[in-house]
Write a structure and sequence with these properties.
Helices cover 26% and strands 26% of the residues. It is an alpha+beta fold. It has a single domain, classed as Gcn5-related N-acetyltransferase (GNAT) (Aminopeptidase). It starts with 17 loop residues before the first strand and ends with a strand. Bound molecules: coenzyme A. Coenzyme A binds next to strand 4, helix 5 and helix 7.
C-alpha cells in the first residue's frame, strides 16, 4: 500500500471496511463530494455535462452510489454509477462518458426502463491505493447491476496512465500489452482481469472548452500562440486557438464491457 495519508496514520484493515450506498448515508454527501474531487486537476471540473447533471447522483441515483467506509466513517473508496439502456452492440454504446451520463438522466426523467449499469467513476483515497479496493468497487457495481437484472456493466474508462502518453492515439494505447500479455495500462488491466472486454475507443468522451485565459488559470501554463499543448494529467493535447480565444480538450477514454448475464 502506498503512503499518502496526510496524518501519516496507517490505514486500518481492509476487512473492517463497510460498504454503504449514498441512499443509506445521505449525511455523507459532502464528504463524498470532497473524496471524489481530490484526485482531479482543475480542468477536469470544467465538463458542462458533469456540472449540469452530477447532482442527480446525490438525488434520484443515490441508491446506486457506493462507498467503502472506515470505522470512523471516513471514505476509503467510492464508486459512482447510473443505469441506462443499451442494445448490446458496439455501435449502440454511447459516444463517451458525457453521452452515457446524459442518456441515464434522460431515461430517468422520462421514467423509461433500463437494462444496463453505466459506471461513471471510482476513486480510492490515497492512503488506500494498491490495496485492491478498486477491484472491490467494480465487483460491487457488477453485483448491483446483476441484482437489478441488468445485462452488463459498461464503463467508459479513463486509463490511469494515458496522460503519460498524450501523443499516442487512444486506439493504439488501449491495445498496448506488457510482455505477459496483460494490458499495459493499470486501470484497463484491472477491468480485464475482472472479466471486462475492451470494446471501442471513445476519443471524445468528455469535452472541456474555455477561453485561453480560462485554460491558463486551469493549468498554470501560458499559451502564447495557437496550437496543441501537452498539459499535465491530460490524456491528449489541448487545442488553443488565439483567433477565437478558445481552448478545447477531449478526454480520451475506452469502452469496457462487463457481461452480467
Ligand atoms: C485508479 C484507482 C481507482 C485504482 O485504485 P486501487 O485501489 O489503488 O487499485 P488496485 O489496488 O485494485 O490496483 C489495480 C492496479 O492498478 C495499479 N495502480 C493502483 N494505483 C495506481 C496508480 N495511481 N497509478 C498507476 N497504477 C496504479 C496497481 O498496481 C494494480 O496493478 P497490478 O495489480 O497489476 O500491480 C486509483 O488509483 C484512483 O482512485 N485514482 C484516481 C481516480 C481515477 O483515476 N479513477 C479511475 C478513473 S474513473
Amino acid at each position: 500500500m502506498t503512503a499518502g495519508d496526510p496524518a501519516g496514520a496507517p490505514p486500518p484493515d481492509v476487512g473492517s471496511l463497510r460498504l454503504v450506498t449514498l441512499a443509506e448515508r445521505p449525511d455523507l454527501a459532502d464528504a463524498l463530494s470532497d473524496h471524489n474531487g481530490a484526485p482531479w486537476p482543475e480542468f477536469m471540473f470544467q465538463d458542462p455535462v458533469v456540472n449540469a447533471l452530477w447532482h442527480h447522483l446525490e438525488e434520484e441515483f443515490a441508491p446506486w452510489q457506493r462507498m467503502l467506509l472506515e470505522a470512523n466513517d471516513r471514505i476509503a473508496a467510492a464508486a459512482n454509477c447510473a443505469p441506462l439502456s443499451w442494445d448490446g452492440t458496439s455501435e449502440g454504446l454511447p459516444d463517451g462518458w458525457d453521452d452515457q451520463f446524459t442518456r441515464s438522466v434522460a431515461l430517468m426523467r422520462a421514467g423509461m426502463p433500463t437494462d444496463t449499469l453505466g459506471a461513471l467513476q471510482i476513486v480510492v483515497a490515497d492512503r488506500w491505493r494498491g490495496a485492491g479496493l478498486a477491484g472491490r468497487m467494480v465487483r460491487s457495481m457488477m453485483a448491483a447491476g446483476r441484482a437489478a437484472g441488468h445485462r452488463a456493466l459498461i464503463a467508459c474508462v479513463r486509463p490511469t496512465d494515458k496522460h503519460r502518453y498524450p501523443l499516442v492515439p487512444i486506439e493504439r494505447y488501449a491495445r498496448w500489452t506488457r510482455p505477459d500479455g496483460e494490458p499495459l495500462d493499470a486501470w484497463i488491466r484491472l477491468h480485464v482481469r475482472l472479466g471486462g472486454r475492451i470494446d471501442r475507443p471513445a476519443p471524445r468522451s468528455m469535452t472541456m472548452r474555455g477561453t485561453v485565459a480560462d485554460w491558463e488559470r486551469w493549468t498554470g501554463l501560458t499559451f502564447p500562440g495557437s496550437g496543441e499543448y501537452v498539459v499535465p494529467f491530460a490524456t491528449r493535447p489541448v487545442t488553443i486557438d488565439l483567433a477565437s480565444d478558445t481552448g478545447t480538450y477531449f478526454d480520451e477514454n475506452v469502452w469496457i464491457v462487463h457481461d452480467l448475464s
